[in-house]
Design goal:
This protein has 141 residues and is mainly beta. 0% of the residues lie in helices and 33% in strands. The protein is extended, with a radius of gyration of 20 Å. The C terminus is likely disordered.
Length: 141
């Protein structure tokens, strides 16, 4: 691809002093409930499970209220990414240890490395309606 600049224009754009606000500061004390999700790969070609249950597109495993803050404990094996739809969260710990430098800041996806990751999430301001809350990916074929 090639771009050809054919004329000059004045640049009136400005870079703000702060690109984004830090947002609300949530702490574990703000959590109203702790939920546990155990992800396990299907053995011998079987279906992967969440909390021992096979995938069912009509089942609801969690129904957080809009504006509610929750702690989710995510565990399982083998290693794979976990993505929460319509919510950002902070990593509280990995296997009981402080989060690593790669866990800093707000997340919507983490890499679950076969242990347990505790996250703090505030469900809002997006309401959501038709997409699942949790997505997992497996690179196995």
């Amino acid at each position: 691809m090639r771009f050809e600049v054919t004329r000059e224009e004045a640049d009136e754009s400005e870079i703000p002093d702060q690109l984004a606000t830090k947002g609300e500061s949530q702490t574990p004390d703000d959590a109203e409930i702790t939920r546990r999700f155990d992800f396990n790969a299907g053995l011998f070609g079987g279906m992967s499970t969440i909390n021992g249950k096979e995938f069912d597109p009509y089942r609801i495993d969690a129904n957080p209220r809009l504006g509610e803050t929750e702690i989710w404990e995510l565990s399982g094996d083998p290693a794979h990414p976990i993505h929460l739809h319509l919510v950002h969260f902070k990593v509280l710990s990995r296997d009981g240890d402080p989060p690593g430098p790669y866990d800093a800041g707000w997340k919507d996806t983490i890499f679950l490395e076969g242990g347990t990751v505790r996250v703090l999430a505030r469900f809002g301001p997006y309401r959501g309606s038709t997409c699942s809350t949790v997505t997992t990916w497996s690179t196995r074929t």
